Amino acid sequence: GPDPKINTIVTCGVSYDSDLEEVNRIALEVAHDVINSSNFAVKTEAPWFGYDKFGDSNVEFWIYLQARDRIGSFMLTSDLIKSLHARFAEEAIEINYPVRKIISGDLDLANLEGPKPAI
Questions:
Q1: Whole-model pTM?
Q2: What is the CATH class of 14-61+76-97?
């Protein structure tokens, strides 16, 4: 029958202040640990890592793993996310929340440039 193995990709992002080589190394270490300890992973398929986007708040990356089957892909994804989150916290690697700059203070709202009321 058909091969039940399925590719699994987990995406994440880290702060622009991060050491990207260190993030790469740590993420692959975590991925290898998850593969070695999981019953859902294809043990003969090494994980892959790559950066793919300068996001609004983070430099975004992906990690590729292979799961034994579809159900296993969900479990493997969950395990990798939990493990990455814990390890990044240990290593003080920051995953930013989206940031919006809000300007407040003594604004003279009456004199701001903008549409003028009709006369």
A1: 0.79
A2: alpha beta
